[in-house]
Amino acid sequence: MKNIFIVLALILALPAHGSWNTGQYPARSTGEAMNGFDARARQVIEQQALQPIPSYSKNSSGPFYTAIMAKLLAGKEVGDVNRAILSPGTKPYGLPGTDFKFIPSLCERKGDYDFMLIGLLHVAYRFKNRPELLWPESYEKMLTQLFTVRGNKPQTSFRIGICGRHPETENHILMTEVSRYLTNQLIHERALSRNEDPKPWDNAQNGMEEWLLKHLQHFLKEDFTEYNSKPYQNYTVIPLETLYNFAQSPRVKEGAKLLLDYLAVKYATQSLDLRRAGPFRRQIKYRGLNDILNGDGQLARYSVLVGNYGLFFNALLSEYEIPQGSNVALLAASGDYRIPPAILDLFFERGAGLLQRVNGQAYESYFLSPSFLLVAGGIYKNYKDYGTGQNDGWAEATVLMPTGQGVLRSDFIRFSGHRNMKKRNNSCVGRGFACGANPVVPATVSRHCVERRIDGDGTWDFFNFSKDGCKSSAGRSNYYVALYRAPCAADVCRDGGGTVGFLEAREAAKEGVDFASFRDAVLRRNGGHKYYGGFANEYVTTSGESLRFIPVPPSRSMTAIQGAGVAGLAQGDVINADRYGLVNIDNKNLGVRYVLDWRDWARPRRWSQALD
Q1: How many Å apart are CA 575 and CA 374, to the nearest integer?
Q2: Rounded distance, CA 163 to CA 14, Å?
Q3: Cis upstream peptide for 402 (omega within 30°)
Q4: Concatenated DSSP letters of 11-41
Q5: Is residue 15 scored above 70 in pLDDT?
Q6: How far apart are CA 263 and CA 360, in angstroms?
Q7: Pick from 607, 42, 36: which is nearest to 334 by CA?
């Protein structure tokens, strides 16, 4: 296996060859995260400024605006940047929105220009008043020739020749309409300076501001369709950051901030050492990959905003690289958005364990503990895309992810779920508990870390990850696991793999329980029972909680743990949200509740208050 743990340079998708010492140690606390931001941002800008300027084309939209923006931020190769903008070859190459080709000319649409637009707007806004960096003629060309989306008619659908009209995707709508809104601002500004009529470009008067506020409010009620998307979540975040940076309207800027904060707290509760392994929508090529980093460009963004990349810090550089991320890292490094302390602290402090469930566009369940993260793989969701699966929501394995170790699913104790990914219901994660079909123990787990007990048709394996040689390589995990496995001959199991199981994971230091006491408590409360794959079972944890669960639920419409449904948008120890636009974020470590309130479309607002 390649050595893939490389420093921030790797995460930001820099060239695969060469070496780079960041000189910036990873953040281990909220204070270090905040104090180290400027140094992390400076390093990102300096590294991206070394990249060549590619051609202005659909296949290089991110690299183009990333390179020219980084060079202007660093004050390097200013002439080359402006000549690239002024080149005759720099011109619109398509329409904003979906790119599609089925029958050449007859059923074809040349799109994806919004990928370039949204990045160029950063360049225009950052440097329009810096003529020594962005030449006036370069800015004029951007405004009059390259910024092709303007006016007050949002594009929420598109036509593909004889193939008819289709609804536009979430990320394309966001990129296109934020580009329209911000381009209107620039034209409005110029009209005022020239004593021209500014009214057609006034977003408050032409309807664009009201439309955009109502469109954005929906996400705080129902979450994003592109949930945890690989790589499309990048193209959701980029327009929101762009809007937050440059919207002149206080309420539009505030609305963008609320959504960025919501995405940040979701990332904090679903990740460990920046790694995520939950369900996602699109792209199909990323489903079932062993490497959980592949395609997740948000890893690069949070490396800048949070800086807790300790898992990647001490290893040697190699040829492995993450294919997405340099653009979102640069925009984070150069932008105004900062994660609020009440959320930022959650990346470092998990207390005695945090259980979080979200049920927006898909069911998600996570349990965060200092030594590990339990991730429910999710439930398959069919978006009815003519059977291609290209737009579907995919369920992954339910995994037990240790702190400080592993970026491959094969590194983790896991429940793979149904062999047919379209039949998966991997929803079983509770407080220190998980269950599912086809349990797997990594071959890398040493035998001296495990004790086995045979129990009827099943097997108990007890893992002592507090022993020397059994902890993570960083020595940051310190916990016990009890894993039960048994064959399952029921109809719900037979075609999906034939085995079922469940586990309990518990911090070794919790309440001073030693390994033998943990093992004995599990067997005393749960040994000698027969467990069923398709029917309800009961498990009593070593903390005394009783759970009723079905390892292989007979329907994708039900959750595996009884009572684990979510009444609103989110429910748990951190995020609690209705579906009306009110999100409460609780940080028990700081004793703070951070409130996002967008129940009134015209009045997005937020505040902090003491927890009761």
Answers
A1: 17
A2: 40
A3: no
A4: HTT--SSS------PPP-SHHHHHHTHHHHH
A5: no
A6: 12
A7: 42
pTM of the predicted protein model: 0.94
Question: In a 10 Å sphere around its CB, with 0-12 CB exposed, 13-18 middle and 19+ buried, how is residue 147 labelled?
Answer: buried
Q: Would you state the structure tokens that stand for residue 270, as one six-digit string?
A: 């679903």
d(C-alpha 461, C-alpha 425), whole Å: 24
Q: What residue has token string 């479309």?
A: 601
Q: Residue 507: which H helix or E strand, with range?
A: strand 499-507
CA 377 to mean position of chain CA atoms: 14
CB-based contact 299:312 (threshold 8 Å):
no
Distance CA 237, CA 116 (A): 15
For 129-162, what is each residue's pLDDT tens digit? 999 999 999 999 999 999 999 999 999 999 998 8
Q: What is the pLDDT, as a whole number, of residue 472?
A: 65
Question: How far is 197 from 486, CA to CA, in rounded Å?
Answer: 75
Token pair belonging to 127:
């440097």
> What DSSP string describes 422-458?
GG-EE--EETTEEEEESEE--TTS-GGGEEEEEETTE
Neighbours of 294 (CB within 10 A): 17
Radius of gyration of the chain (CA): 25
Q: For residue 61, give both structure tokens.
A: 């939209």
Residue 555 has a pLDDT of 80
Following DSSP, what letter does each residue of 301-343 receive, concatenated?
HHHHHT---GGGTSSPP-S---SS-HHHHHHHHHSS----HHH
pLDDT tens string 159-185: 998 888 989 999 999 999 999 999 999
pLDDT in the model for residue 387: 67
Which of 258, 404, 345, 329 lies closest to 34 in space, CA to CA? Answer: 345
CA 88 centroid distance within chain: 38
**Number of C-beta neighbours around residue 578 at 10 A:** 15
CB of 54 closer than 8 Å to CB of 68: no
Contact 460, 482 (CB under 8 A): yes
Long-range contacts of 185-192 (CB under 8 A, 24+ apart): 185/246, 185/247, 185/248, 186/124, 186/125, 186/128, 186/143, 186/147, 187/143, 187/150, 190/143
